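Slack export, channel: ligand-projects

TW: morning all. Re-posting the request from yesterday since it got buried. We need the structure predicted with the small molecule present, not the apo form. The ligand is nicotinamide-adenine-dinucleotide; the SMILES is in the block with the sequence. No rush, but it would help planning for next week.
GE: picking it up
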Amino acid sequence: MNSISEKTIGRLSLYRRILGELAQKQTQHIYSHELAAMAGATAAQVRRDLMPVGYSGSPTKGYGVRDLMDSISKFMDAPCGQSVALVGLGNLGRAILTYFAGRRPNLTITVTFDNDRSRVGKAFHGCRCYHTEELQKVIAQNNIRMAIIAVPADHAQSVADNLINCGIYGLLNFAPISLRVPGHVYVEYIDITTSMEKAAYFTRRAIERAKSGKSA
Amino acid sequence: MNSISEKTIGRLSLYRRILGELAQKQTQHIYSHELAAMAGATAAQVRRDLMPVGYSGSPTKGYGVRDLMDSISKFMDAPCGQSVALVGLGNLGRAILTYFAGRRPNLTITVTFDNDRSRVGKAFHGCRCYHTEELQKVIAQNNIRMAIIAVPADHAQSVADNLINCGIYGLLNFAPISLRVPGHVYVEYIDITTSMEKAAYFTRRAIERAKSGKSA
DNA sequence: CAAGCATTGTGAACTGCGTAACGACATTAA
DNA sequence: TTAATGTCGTTACGCAGTTCACAATGCTTG
Ligand SMILES: NC(=O)c1ccc[n+]([C@@H]2O[C@H](COP(=O)([O-])OP(=O)(O)OC[C@H]3O[C@@H](n4cnc5c(N)ncnc54)[C@H](O)[C@@H]3O)[C@@H](O)[C@H]2O)c1
Ligand SMILES: NC(=O)c1ccc[n+]([C@@H]2O[C@H](COP(=O)([O-])OP(=O)(O)OC[C@H]3O[C@@H](n4cnc5c(N)ncnc54)[C@H](O)[C@@H]3O)[C@@H](O)[C@H]2O)c1
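GE: finished. pasting the full token output, ligand included:
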């Protein structure tokens, strides 16, 4: 199986974003060690990650910024754009919608759902909000295969079940629970609470280290 | 050095949250395989993660829910509470502040900063917003050692520099860039854009697998 | 009371990821 | 032309993290 690791895909996403900024600054070429420094990685890792992409740089010029960016896009993106549904238009859901509105042409939040009738019907950022009852119909009509879950934790599992039942194959879950899904469904987790507690723990460790280092 | 891995700390945070819910339901005891199922892990991994915590379960009753939760808290949390600063009160920053307000007594966002004067001075959720100019003073006064960065990407590095200059040892960074920080500072990254693209990629892969599996 | 049983804690084996190392190659300079 | 330089692509290695496997433990039951 020539399967690409999740870590590599994550870094490719980051490399592409950096290349995009470089392209805006009219930078033509870049070496692996330069890209690595900007991405917080090593030169060897960058070269390794780029292997499956199939783009080759020149030993003297490095990588062509524009070409590499396009190659990564060709490798990662859907050929014809991808529509995403967002479920839960609370504080976090609205922040996400606002952020992604009009940003990526190839990966767009096209519909949103909530079960709060006061939100239903309104359009945020040109994106209509439907009631959760209409999940099945709207997802089928728009041929959506991926969804973002931004509902409270105690509703997340049932929302996921519904989505999968409607033919969803991939989820980005912000609710702080582990979802039980069938084997064919991919789930990406963002657990802000856990990240917060991790950061708090390692912050304390960093302080301890600094103190003991000072005294030593 | 008997250093604990980041992965383990992340899962301990999740275990504790699950235990909290179990405690509310008056569940007294739980086995490693039950906790593993709820956390999306394996029984062996749960037991391994619990080793550094130092709490021992009984081979017949399993782990005491309340006791294990307390042991994890004693292991992970600061003995006397921890204050966190939030920089950037945009859409994401406000969502985070709203979510954490009054939720965790031991880990609290106590001050916020923005450079938009229209936000400064107001209090969101009983938490005053200061102008970034006052960073040094306010952080010193409140003895803050950790901060959340929720400003646009092109300001994130300079904000981080300022924070570190004020004595911050740990960061939770939502800006989609890699921060350059001195070795004594810990950084935890949440890159929503990358997670989104990862999910999109593996969603497509899941669809392909399902199709080829169907035809095979 | 002893045998049986399910679970715990942990050493040992395994897996996968990141790093190091090295041959290949294009350019530059002598 | 030829030697020197610096980077690329790829293979090989080492380590961290996960899973396996089993002795130790203490309840249950006949
Ligand atoms: N905001 C944060 O910083 C933060 C931090 C950690 C975790 N989270 C998690 O992210 C998720 C969303 O957080 P939030 O702050 O936006 O919460 P929120 O309460 O502001 O929003 C939740 C939204 O989901 C809607 N909803 C509830 N049940 C629903 C259902 N069954 N179907 C459709 N919509 C439903 C509600 O009407 C509401 O609009 C939660 O699971 C939360 O635990 C958020
Ligand atoms: N909202 C999302 O879903 C999302 C997704 C991906 C990435 N992000 C990242 O999260 C960060 C915040 O996103 P957002 O949607 O809240 O953006 P936003 O534009 O809504 O908020 C940014 C806030 O930061 C403040 N700010 C700007 N420069 C500042 C400075 N130098 N010092 C202090 N405050 C400053 C602004 O006044 C504003 O209030 C950004 O880096 C963004 O790239 C957000």
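GE: first-pass observations. Strands of chain B lie at 29-30, 63-64, 82-87, 107-114, 123-124, 127-131, 146-149, 170-173, 186-189. The longest helix of chain B spans residues 192-215.
TW: perfect, thank you
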